[in-house]
Backbone:
């Protein structure tokens, strides 16, 4: 047979062997990587940081269960003829079951037990759904008692196994295979199966701890977290706090914003005429001083509210002080025509909010149409207060980055008092028209366009 013929005969066999070797090695490598990945995930699940925290929670539950188990064990041991603490496995299991009602009674009667459980869970488990403080009234107390029973009930066997299983695993792996007549419970494990039993026990302990810890973690929000009614009450409290913050923000925006607008215009005007008209510059500086002092008083008042102090040393301005607003706008270079009707018997809250509305409307006029005449009309008739502020629309308006907070604040103030506000261009003017009831009524807000 020629060499070529011999090669043709042996080549398929060689290729088959090489392919089998390569495929076999690749398959083994793939299986090895999959096995390692699976082992890594299992190890992370059983011994990761979250798993160890849950395991610590269970051990703490077992430690807290110890005094209750001790009491019931002492009571039950004589009944079963054990004669001393510990006794048979049956006595210990009976003491464990009898201790659970004692745990429930202690958690129901002693507040510090419930508080301790809450602190432990907040420390060792994700606490985003538990709230900031323990729920300790009505049905919430019952749920907390149920959690205490579950925590200590699962923690006792897991913590006991955590102490007993490691030495048992060592004995099964290293001692039992070499003993012909082992004492106690080792006699129930055949020597040939002892290593297998040791490995299974070593795997069973972390698996049981993982399962019990996951059960506690999933039960914690339902048993220790706020109920639906409590969440609703907390949302209402949060809404009230946010409403108060918005009110204070409006106060700062309207009062300090107006003062800063006046200061800006006066400083610019004084700088332009400082050399040729010193008298006007001195007048502008005096107006700046007055505006800054007023802003400082307003800021002191708002900071007092934020710190929950008394409502400030300076009384809140109202419509009786509207002439000061007109004077400050005039000093900033905008002629103001002020018409005020009969405001006798004006409710205090309406008068204060109306002052802020006029203040913000004048601030807008100074900011967007400085130097233009402004008409302000205030009158009370037919059980409502009517405010109207108008100024010519500027020929070219610079883009504003303030987001329309002023007009939003006007609309919010009107709506809170049951009135409504309209604002927008009318006959070549930017006009703000507000109606406020002089008695409490239903809100009839018709929001206008923001400026």
Residues:
């Amino acid at each position: 047979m020629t060499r070529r013929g011999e090669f043709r005969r042996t080549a398929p066999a060689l290729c088959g062997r090489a392919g089998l070797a390569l495929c076999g090695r690749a398959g083994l490598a793939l299986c090895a990587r999959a096995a390692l990945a699976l082992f890594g995930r299992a190890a992370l699940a059983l011994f990761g940081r979250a798993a160890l925290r849950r395991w610590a929670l269970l051990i703490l539950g077992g430690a807290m269960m110890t005094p209750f188990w001790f009491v019931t064990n002492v009571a039950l041991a004589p009944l079963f003829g054990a004669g001393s603490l510990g006794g048979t496995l049956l006595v210990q299991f009976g003491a464990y079951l009898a201790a659970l009602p004692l745990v429930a009674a202690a958690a129901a009667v002693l507040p510090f037990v419930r508080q301790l459980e809450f602190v432990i869970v907040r420390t060792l488990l994700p606490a985003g759904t538990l709230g900031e403080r323990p729920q300790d009234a009505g049905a919430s107390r019952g749920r907390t008692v149920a959690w205490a029973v579950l925590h200590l009930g699962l923690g006792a066997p897991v913590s006991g196994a955590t102490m007993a299983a490691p030495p048992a695993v060592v004995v099964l792996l290293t001692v039992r295979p070499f003993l012909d007549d082992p004492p106690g419970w080792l006699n129930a494990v055949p020597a040939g199966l002892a290593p297998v039993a040791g490995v299974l026990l070593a795997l069973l302990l972390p698996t049981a701890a993982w399962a019990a810890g996951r059960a506690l973690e999933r039960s914690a929000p339902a048993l220790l977290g706020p109920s639906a009614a409590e969440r609703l009450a907390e949302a209402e409290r949060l809404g009230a706090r946010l409403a108060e913050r918005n009110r204070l923000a409006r106060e700062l925006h309207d009062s300090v914003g107006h003062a800063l607008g006046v200061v800006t215009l006066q400083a610019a005007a004084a700088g332009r005429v400082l050399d040729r008209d010193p008298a006007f510059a001195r007048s502008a500086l005096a107006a700046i001083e007055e505006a800054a002092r007023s802003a400082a008083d307003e800021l002191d008042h708002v900071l007092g509210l934020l710190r929950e102090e008394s409502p400030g040393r300076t009384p809140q301005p109202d419509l009786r002080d509207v002439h000061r607003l007109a004077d400050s706008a005039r000093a900033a270079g905008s002629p103001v025509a002020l018409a005020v009707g009969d405001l006798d018997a004006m409710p205090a809250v309406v008068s204060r909010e109306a002052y802020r509305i006029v203040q913000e409307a004048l601030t807008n006029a100074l900011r967007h149409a400085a130097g233009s005449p402004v008409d302000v009309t205030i009158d009370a008739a037919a059980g409502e207060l009517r405010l109207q502020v108008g100024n010519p629309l500027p020929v070219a308006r610079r883009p504003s980055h303030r987001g329309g907070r002023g007009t939003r604040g006007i609309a919010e103030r009107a709506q809170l008092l049951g009135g409504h506000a309209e604002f927008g261009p009318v006959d070549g003017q930017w006009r703000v028209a507000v109606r406020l009831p002089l008695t409490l009524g239903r809100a009839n807000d018709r929001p206008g366009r923001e400026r």
Notes: Confidence is low (pLDDT under 50) at residues 397-403, 441-451. The beta strands are 336-340, 374-381, 384-392, 420-426, 429-437.
